[in-house]
Write a structure and sequence with these properties.
alpha+beta, 10 strands
Length: about 375
């Protein structure tokens, strides 16, 4: 990655205003710039990996050195342009989300995943943004990323001043809470950098207290092996029995630590049609989603982040939620029949979770 642009040729004040304007025009809600030095964060990552808190996300261990240094990921990088994009659809209501979690006949999909795959949405816009920058200042070396490479993007965004790291480890911002995606453009041009901002969590521990599986083991420390988002998405194997009851009706991800966070009272809604919910995922019942064939799963989740977990993990997650519904006396007849009828054609992973779910039918309500 190499650029012919000299630092002296950059009109810093005019360029920065222009960058902000272009970012907003492309649908981004925030933009800040930082250098590539991650400091103590690299040691914290190493310790976290040594403790095994990444579970079976082996790619994090495999690319740990690259994560610690963006210059190794993309040689020549001297700056990282960090952007955020809000994702909540206009109709999102946090009170309604809590109510869905209490109604165990419902299937709860994490709010970020109900629309189009954010990787595609952000990547396309980041690429266009980088091309516009090149048209403005001349040819430069760059690469764009959004949760798609060994890059400590939350730490870079924190260092750039897009927000501060909350006690749940997500990035928080006073104007938009935590309900936004992050994206990066790694460039070889020495753009002016921004400063980190002050933290505003204070003594609040709501996110720690509300976590169903106590995955937030201490402020700013997350054990992914206990996290429902990890268990339902990244985990390829059987869901540990000790966490199944706590999953409730969460079938893809978990939003509890965001729903409870006081700063998300200010969470801004997105007007981008890409993030509007699809196929009724904000209102679907467990039985409705269980009725989908594999072909329907593939078709309806085309262009969705959910599709990458595959049909088997999807059914595994649903089976656990259906077992929890049975244990609470919800739609026992219909759910029992649906689970039993699926047994003959289920693969071993799903079979084990169906059998566990049916076993919950005998539990006292």
């Amino acid at each position: 990655m190499s650029s012919s642009i000299s630092p002296q040729s950059i009109d810093e004040s005019n360029l920065r205003d222009w960058l902000n304007t272009q970012a907003m025009a492309l649908g981004f809600d925030g933009l800040r710039i930082t250098d590539t030095h991650l400091g103590p964060a690299t040691d914290r990552l190493k310790e976290w990996l040594e403790q095994g808190c990444h579970g079976q996300m082996e790619y994090m261990q495999r690319h740990a050195e690259l994560r610690s240094n963006p210059e190794l990921l993309v040689p020549g990088t001297v700056r990282v342009i960090c952007v955020s994009m809000n994702y909540l659809p206009p109709e999102t209501d946090f009170d309604a989300e809590w109510q869905r979690l209490e109604n165990l006949s419902q299937a709860v999909v994490s709010m970020y995943a109900r629309g189009r795959d954010y990787h595609k949405v952000l990547r396309n816009r980041l690429q266009e943004f980088a091309q516009r920058i090149e048209e403005r200042i001349g040819k430069l070396g760059y690469r764009v990323f959004t949760d798609s490479a060994p890059l400590m993007e939350v730490e870079l965004a924190r260092k750039a001043g897009l927000g501060w790291r909350g006690k749940h480890t997500l990035l928080l911002n006073r104007e938009s809470g935590s309900t936004f995606f992050l994206g990066e453009i790694l460039v070889d041009v020495p753009l002016p950098i921004d400063q980190a901002i002050e933290e505003h969590c204070g003594t609040c521990t709501s996110c720690i207290d509300v976590c169903p599986t106590q995955a937030i083991t201490a402020p700013y420390q997350l054990d992914a092996r206990r996290c429902i988002s990890y268990l339902t998405i990244e985990n390829p194997d059987s869901i540990p029995v000790e966490f199944r009851k706590a999953m409730g009706n969460r079938v893809y991800g978990c939003d509890d630590c965001q729903l409870i966070c006081p700063w998300n009272k200010f969470a801004k809604r997105s007007q981008l049609p890409d993030f509007a919910q699809r196929h009724g995922l904000g209102q679907a019942t467990l039985l409705q989603l269980w009725s989908w064939t594999e072909q329907e799963f593939e078709q309806r989740h085309e262009g969705s982040a959910i599709r990458r977990i595959g049909y088997s993990r999807w059914r595994r997650n649903l089976a656990v939620a259906m077992g929890n519904a049975l244990a609470s006396g919800v739609e026992k007849g219909a759910i029992t029949e649906a689970l039993k009828s699926a047994l003959p054609s289920a693969d071993p992973l799903v079979t084990e979770h169906i059998e566990w779910a049916l076993g919950q039918n005998a539990r006292p309500t």
